[in-house]
């Protein structure tokens, strides 16, 4: 197969970024003084219900997921040749919507500010969180 044919074949099979959805992820830092277990349980058992109870989250989001760091995997990960640095983050909140504006509408909503933000201050360190946003491409999905 010539180089032109290979490029044409690659373009047909190449993944592309979705244009109908966007994701915003928050690298979650626990509030100082909370144990790993306290942060993890509160975020999943309490805060998930608080956040998902507000009308605008239901209306604006296509998906809300929590990725929880599992400390039992630390030694396995450290033994690999992947990234060697430890992180202060304990999880990742994933918000998916049709546009970034839809996600930011949530964070500016009166009910979010009144109900969710005070709950976040119980377990989440806003000052040390990191936020990333953009389109995504699914490369492998066996669901």
General description of the model:
The protein is 42% helix and 17% strand. The chain has six helices and four strands, in the order H-E-H-H-E-H-E-H-H-E. Strands 2-3-1-4 form a four-stranded antiparallel β-sheet. The protein is flat and about 45 Å long. The relative contact order is 0.26. The model has no long low-confidence stretch (mean pLDDT 90).
Topology:
Elements: H1 3-13, E1 22-28, H2 36-52, H3 55-60, E2 63-68, H4 74-79, E3 91-97, H5 100-108, H6 110-120, E4 130-134
Antiparallel strand pairs: 1-3, 1-4, 2-3
Helix and strand run: HEHHEHEHHE
As a percent range, the share of strand residues is 15-25%
Enumerate the strands of the largest sheet in spatial order, edge to edge or round the barrel.
Answer: 2-3-1-4
Mind telling me the C-alpha Rg?
19 Å
Structural class: alpha+beta
Instruction: Give the tally of β-strands.
Output: 4
Number of helices: 6
């Amino acid at each position: 197969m010539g180089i032109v044919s290979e490029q044409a074949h690659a373009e047909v099979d190449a993944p592309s970024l979705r244009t109908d959805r966007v994701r915003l992820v928050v690298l979650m830092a626990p509030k100082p003084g909370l144990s790993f277990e306290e942060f993890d349980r509160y975020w999943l058992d309490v805060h998930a219900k608080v956040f998902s109870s507000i009308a605008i989250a239901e209306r604006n989001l296509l998906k809300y997921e929590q990725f929880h760091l599992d400390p039992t995997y630390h030694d396995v990960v450290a033994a690999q040749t992947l990234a060697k640095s430890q992180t202060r983050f304990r999880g990742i909140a994933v918000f998916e919507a049709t546009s970034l504006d839809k996600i930011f509408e949530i964070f500016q909503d009166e009910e979010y500010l009144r109900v969710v933000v005070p709950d976040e201050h119980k377990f989440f360190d806003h000052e040390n969180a990191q936020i990333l946003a953009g389109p995504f491409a699914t490369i492998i999905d066996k669901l």
